[in-house]
Write a structure and sequence with these properties.
This protein is 0% helix and 40% strand. The protein is mainly beta and 82 residues long. It is globular. The termini are close together.
Length: 82
């Protein structure tokens, strides 16, 4: 999984300094995939868990340009390998 800045679309690495919508700064510690389709992933900043969008980020699968979600194969089977 990777974190992507919603404005610049650039990858944000673990250990990078991030800024939330209030202007508060913190260090990105870890990423957590969303449990359900349509939900935001979560991130850990300075030991606290937040929805990624609070910090202007999206959590994405490494092999996808879209936010982390289960992918549906042609025959309607769910591919949860991402």
């Amino acid at each position: 999984m990777i974190a992507v800045d919603m404005k610049t679309k650039k990858v944000v690495n673990i250990g990078a300094e991030v800024t939330n919508f209030r202007g508060e700064r913190g260090m990105l510690r870890s990423l957590e995939r969303a449990n359900e389709m349509g939900r935001d992933g979560k991130i850990n900043v300075d030991g606290r868990t937040f929805y990624a969008r609070v910090w202007g980020l999206e959590v994405r699968s490494l092999n996808s340009d879209t936010p982390t979600k289960a992918r549906v194969k042609k025959r309607g089977k769910v591919d949860s390998s991402t």
